[in-house]
Structures are given as C-alpha cells and as structure tokens.
Amino acid sequence: MNIVIVGLGVIGGSYAMALKNAGYKKIFGVDSNMETLKKAKELELIKEGYIYGSYIIKKADLIILSIYPKLVKTFIEENRNNFKKGAVITDATGIKELFIKDVLDILPKDVDFIFGHPMAGREKKGIDYASSEVFNGANYLITVIEKNKEENIALVEKIAYNIGFKRVKRITSKYHDEIISFTSQLPHAIAVALINSDKESRDTGSFIGDSYRDLTRIANINEDLWSELFLGNKLNLIKVIDEFSSELEKIKKCLIEDDSEMLKSLFIKSTKRRERL
Amino acid sequence: MNIVIVGLGVIGGSYAMALKNAGYKKIFGVDSNMETLKKAKELELIKEGYIYGSYIIKKADLIILSIYPKLVKTFIEENRNNFKKGAVITDATGIKELFIKDVLDILPKDVDFIFGHPMAGREKKGIDYASSEVFNGANYLITVIEKNKEENIALVEKIAYNIGFKRVKRITSKYHDEIISFTSQLPHAIAVALINSDKESRDTGSFIGDSYRDLTRIANINEDLWSELFLGNKLNLIKVIDEFSSELEKIKKCLIEDDSEMLKSLFIKSTKRRERL
C-alpha cells in the first residue's frame, strides 16, 4: 500500500514517524517546502518527497492530508484527475462541517474520503517538532458520511490503532464540531485570554505554580491554523464561550455575596466531574 | 533545631518528607487526626506526633503551620503563652492580607512570624498524597513585615532552598495577594467554570486531547481550603476575573465580526507571552 502524506508539518511528520515505527514501508511525502522534504528523507521517514504531488498522488492508495483546513478543498480540486480509482483519502483537520459538503461536491465517485481527526498535537509547528509518541493513548474521531465504504473506514481505524491511538470513535460531523468547540477550541480561547489579561511588564514568572503553567501552555498557538479553526466553527464556539462565562459569573456572584456554601458546591461539582474524566 | 509542623496534610506531610531528605533530624508533628500522626511516624517523617500541641510547641525553634487560613489566627491565640522566646513561625498559606494584621495584634513580642507561601501543591488532600518532590523547582514567596528579623527571614529562605525551591522572592502582602489572585486563584476559578459548563451526561472523555485535560486538572479542588482562599482574597479575584472576561470577550468579538486579523494578533500576543514565561 502506497501512503502519501500531504503536508509534513508537526502532524504530518508525526504521522510519517508513527507509520514507519508501525511497520509501514511505502510512505511518500508532499510538501511545498524543500527543506522539510530533505529533512524527512534524511530521517528516513519517507521513501521520496515531492514539491508537486501529481506524480505520486496518481500512485497513492491512501492519502493523509495534514494541511490547513482551507487547503483541503483546494487540494481535492487540484488533484481530482490524479486520484487512483479506489483511493482512500483521510485528513487531520480539527473542524469538519465547514468543508465536508464542499469536498463531496467535487470528489470523484470512485474515491472515498474518510474524515478523521487525530486529537493530538503540539504547540510548535514544523517537522522539527514531529514525534511518533504524540498519538500514544490519544483519541481519534471519524466523522462518517453516508458514502463511506465500511472497509475504508476500517482501514483508517486500523491504522489509527496501529500508530498508537487508544480510542477511535465514529460520530457525525455536526456532533464533532459541537463537542470539539468545547473540548478543544474553548480551552485554547481561555488560555489565550488568561495570559493576555496579565499586566504588561510584570515579573509573573516568579509568582506561578503548576496551575498557571498548565493553563497557559496552549496559549503558545499557531495563529494561522487556529484562526481558521475558530472562525470555521464560530457558532459552536461562541455558544460554549457564553456557557463557560456564565459558570464563571456564578463563581463571581459567590464572591460578591460571600456565599461560601454555594462556592463549595461548585467546587464539589467540578471535583466529581474531574474525577469521572 | 526543633522543627514542629502543625497540620500533616498533603503540604505538611510534604514538608516533613522534604526536610527529612534535606537532613533535618528533629522534626515533630501536630495534627488533630490520630491516624495521620501514626502514618507520619511509621514513615519516620516525624520523631513524635501530638494531638495537642502545647507540650512540643514549648520546645519548638521553628514552627511550620500548614493549616487552613482561618486556623492560623486561632493557633496563635491558643498558643501565645506556649511559644519559646525567639521562636520563628512560618506558614504555607496562599493569601496573606486577611490575617497578617490579626496575627501581629496577638503575637508575643519575642516571637517572629515569617509569612511564607510555597507555590506548590497537589489536587488531593491528606498525608497519603504528600511527596518530597512537590517543592522541586517551585517558587517560594515571603511577605516580609517590618518587625521581621533578617536572620529569621534568612533561616526560612535557606530552608526553602534546602528542600528544593528554585526561587525565593520577598514581596509585600498587598502585592502578594494581588498577583496570586491572578496566577493561582483565577486559574482555579477558570478550571472549575470550564468543567462545570460541560453538558451533563455527555461522554466528554472520548473527545478530549491534552488541552482539556491540562485545563481541568485543578478543577479537582479541596472545597474547604479554596473557598477560604477565594473569599479571603475576593476583591483582587473579582478584578482579575473581570480582566480575564474582557479578554475572552475580545476573542468572541473577533468571531462575531469574522475578524481573522485581530484574532491572529491576539494569538501572536499570547504566544510571545507564553514563550517569555
């Protein structure tokens, strides 16, 4: 099976490493950056790398897209005449509703797109931060569409387990975007807002414990990728921001009213929920 | 030097372990729970344990209070006639303004209270979760008051470094409570609000990555301790909640207005700040 990874950034590079470690041999890379291709080849992550994908896309049995959300549609458009009959395409995009319909409108009939979301990432971008470990024990989501063939879903699922994911879930794209706005985009919005609300030029680093460090880790964020993810899922994200804000207001109200009992009950609720996680 | 630790919970127990590892020999414990004292003695963390402290307090050169904030004043009241002349008391309380004045009003003249705040903790309570590692590389704050003798500040400082703290800062209690509301209490409020804003009975655990896990870790919270810390520093905490909320509103505004450029500039700011940390 020829596997072509399109986009050898931190996620694509990690895919290449993890696939290699899992025993897959025929892995090829497409990337617009020559340096990246060179590194990937030196590290023996790919058999060959290509700036222009058309040649190798024609031979691909499985194509893994690890590119920015907006580029997914462009990629299909540009390659619609290159895909092999029966080829399987999958992606690594953190939002789904935005482009599934667009992609299906232009996807050749004999190509199957299994929309996937590996819930693992790094703050840093680029192949230098790729790691085969990043998928270990993580969650993997497949947003199944009617047209998907069971054997192709099973293939993507099997590969996910082979490269270290602990749990693969099949869900609808609507539910995916809804829950992801809460579990992934909202935490990033919070982390950014937290560190941005610090006073300028204060020596904050001398006054922090693990909590501040943990809560701001993801404030180190790829602005191009995450602005696409945020805006591409804005209605869901606005809703969960509002729900979160109203919970924070509850805490503030306890403070204003010196309501120790209500405050404790909020803490007991959060503790139970965290322990269940 | 006889060291008496009052309160052998997760912090007091960790103190005992870390002091022992650092070579201190004469460590005694006071705790209202007989089981806890038994465990501490079995683990050889203390030479002897006491339910009622008066006997051993009389012999103490250094007293480390690791009890709930409200109990600090009570402890001083109850023991004001027990303290040895020249004894040094220090505490581990996360807020300071609330009780410094009260304590100073009743503290005997020949006893020096060095108000300390080890910025390290665990979500869990009790000696079973104590660990000598918890202080390694952490920050330690001393809120100096006029009455403190330099030699006693230096003693507490030296012990902090001996048991693993990386950095000891001397600051005013006003500044302490102000910055701690931001770096410690606000993150806890956010974590609690985040997990409490989840929809009931949703299988959230299947849809999370590291970010949600990191941001909710401290939602597992000791409700008695943290309600005291929140309410005892409420004015500062309300202020930083408001400042945080207004940053979150900025992000929401970008979403409503599809303002990709502004969103990116917020991300670039947060990334720079996080990298500087």
Automatic annotation (TrEMBL), chains A, B:
Key words, A-Z: Oxidoreductase
Source species, domain of life: Bacteria
UniProt key word Kinase: no
Pathway annotation: Amino-acid biosynthesis
MF GO annotations: NAD+ binding; prephenate dehydrogenase (NAD+) activity; prephenate dehydrogenase (NADP+) activity
SUPFAM superfamilies: 6-phosphogluconate dehydrogenase C-terminal domain-like, NAD(P)-binding Rossmann-fold domains
InterPro entries: 6-PGluconate_DH-like_C_sf (IPR008927), NAD(P)-bd_dom_sf (IPR036291), PDH_C (IPR046825), PDH_N (IPR046826), Preph/Arog_dehydrog (IPR050812), Prephen_DH (IPR003099)
Any one of the GO BP annotations: tyrosine biosynthetic process
Domain Prephenate/arogenate dehydrogenase: from-to ranges: 1-277
PANTHER family noted in UniProt: PREPHENATE DEHYDROGENASE, PREPHENATE DEHYDROGENASE [NADP(+)]
Stated family: Belongs to the prephenate/arogenate dehydrogenase family.
Protein name per its UniProtKB record: Prephenate dehydrogenase
Protein species of origin: Clostridium septicum
Origin organism lineage: Bacteria, Bacillati, Bacillota, Clostridia, Eubacteriales
